[in-house]
Specification:
- Chains A, B: Keywords: Signal.
- Chains A, B: Pfam families: DJ-1_PfpI.
- Two copies of one chain form a homodimer.
- Chain A is of the alpha/beta class and 226 residues long.
- In chain A, 53% of the residues are buried.
- Chain A has one domain: Rossmann fold, CATH 3.40.50.
- In chain A, helix 4 runs parallel beside helix 9 and helix 9 packs across helix 10.
- The longest helix of chain A is centred in the C-terminal third of the chain and has 14 residues.
- Chains A and B meet through helix 4, strand 2 and strand 4 of A and helix 4, strand 2 and strand 4 of B.
- Strand 4 of chain A pairs antiparallel with strand 4 of chain B, so a sheet runs across the interface.
């Protein structure tokens, strides 16, 4: 099977077949290090859906990184950052949520530079919703199969034509880069990541624990852009 | 139709028929005041799922209330409280999430006293997951139709036998009290609240905006206790 077909298929069966021995090994020695970017007017569920699912794996540390100590979500509640964007932090997973705040941030050259450096020390990068706009604008997704929020599809895809944007995908996994569709798609993609990293049994355990209904098929995208 | 049958039915059609003129009026004059309790080891999605959905309505203010200024979720990331539990705050909606932290908190008599007072100045009270354990233990749900996390059903229901616990319900709406099943059920119940308050069109707008798949039938409970 060609690599492109493999990526396009994106079924759970394939996901579990793709468990990475390197990433899996990280769980034996030290906690899985997860870093999530936050900025004012980030979208609440973009961040906290994945945090919920990934945070239920054993031996995981999730930290927030941002330009200041307190960050306000679009919906109002505020989070505290653990790490500053003054430096970069090697991690197993780097999460980039979206939200209204990305509209301004795509013009922030300092952030673009930091993003490129942070991605270079991250084992895997996971964007949710318009988080992909930040990565795309920084040139990080050039030549990569990726998706984004379908409600903001024209805006995001217009920022970087060199990305192989996928109009029909709940999420797209292309090696180092996992990009999800809008808001709640991030929660489904997070369980895909769990299954990829630690197997489907673990993903199903967390689905049950959170009384969730996991849309586990990347091709099942009810909001696809036709 | 008898009141009990009406409550047991819990369909969307009924939900929209139940739009409260009082609550609806609140949107015309001042922002809808939403207050959410947070405590260490609260469950991330219990809080942030509802915050996501409710926070997309127009003219809403969501504030966090807690015993200290910084609160750590079970999954790690920290939030900042806006208001202290030293006093009570009149509000339109009071949200009580669950999580591992409730296991200790059910023994906290000071919190129980505060909860009773806070509920008395709240127009509507919405618990998610084991958040209902706190309300039940405080005697607030006595005689009320309610539900809770199905993974912790024996523990929660054992705390207060005077509650009319419902073993099969994604959520239960009983007048002032809306109680949801575990974790992700809170997100579905939050959209029910939106539909009750501002109509189904608004709930469907937010569902689409967040690329969500709303389980809009309270009777559709895949994790029911048989």
């Amino acid at each position: 099977m060609k690599r492109r077909d493999f990526l396009a298929a994106g079924t759970l069966a394939m996901a579990t077949a793709m468990v990475s021995p390197q990433l899996f090994a990280a769980t034996k020695d030290k906690p899985l290090q997860v870093l999530a970017l936050v900025f004012d007017d980030y979208e609440t569920l973009d961040l906290h859906g994945p945090v919920e699912m990934i945070g239920h794996m054993k031996n995981v540390q999730i930290k927030l990184v941002g330009a200041k100590s307190i960050i306000r979500s679009y919906q109002g509640p505020k989070v505290v950052t653990d790490i500053s964007t003054d430096s970069v932090t090697p991690c197993d997973l780097f999460i980039v949520p979206g939200g209204l705040g990305t509209r301004k941030l795509v013009e922030d050259e300092e952030l673009m530079t930091w993003l490129r450096k942070q991605v270079s020390v991250s084992e895997k990068v996971f964007s949710i919703c318009t988080g992909s706009a930040l990565l795309a604008r920084a040139g990080i997704l050039d030549g990569i199969n990726a998706t984004t929020n379908k409600m903001a599809y024209q805006w995001v895809t217009g920022l970087a034509r060199q990305v192989n944007w996928q109009p029909r995908a709940r999420w797209v996994d292309d090696g180092k880069f996992l990009t999800s569709s809008g808001v709640s798609a991030g929660t489904d993609a997070a369980l895909f990541y769990v299954s990829q990293l630690r197997g489907e049994v673990e993903a199903r355990r967390i689905e049950r624990l959170t009384e969730y209904h996991w849309n586990h098929d990347a091709k099942n995208d009810p909001y696809a852009v036709s």
